[in-house]
């Protein structure tokens, strides 16, 4: 998990040339901050080309909080629509699962009759 800005976007043609369902999109991301894992300063994030195949739509020049999977030692990870990747201005990731305890009920101070 990391944040960074997208510096480039390219289509990776796979399989049949006129068939977008097997293509990937590769986004080059300049990493600003690592939250989990060890990510190089520049990483390629691959995703399905088509949104109907859960592909991400990221924009060059915009910053994102990226939830990715895969071994980043080769400079490439993958992500998809349901991964949680979102614009960076939405804030840092929530890293706790603690839930606040419910408030105690007020004590009854009325005298019993």
TrEMBL record:
Which InterPro entries is this protein grouped with?
A: TIMP-like_OB-fold
SUPFAM superfamilies associated with the record? TIMP-like
Q: What is this protein called?
A: Tissue inhibitor of metalloproteinase
Organism of derivation: Saccharothrix saharensis
């Amino acid at each position: 998990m990391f944040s960074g800005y997208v510096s480039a976007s390219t289509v990776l043609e796979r399989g049949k040339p006129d068939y977008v369902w097997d293509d990937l999109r590769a986004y080059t991301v300049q990493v600003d901050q690592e939250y989990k894992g060890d990510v190089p300063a520049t990483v390629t994030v691959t995703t399905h080309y088509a949104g109907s195949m859960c592909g991400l739509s990221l924009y060059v020049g915009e910053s994102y909080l990226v939830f990715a999977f895969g071994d980043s030692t080769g400079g490439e990870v993958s992500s998809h629509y349901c991964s949680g990747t979102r614009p960076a201005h939405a804030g840092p990731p929530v890293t706790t699962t603690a839930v606040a305890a419910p408030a105690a009920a007020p004590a009854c101070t009325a005298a019993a009759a």
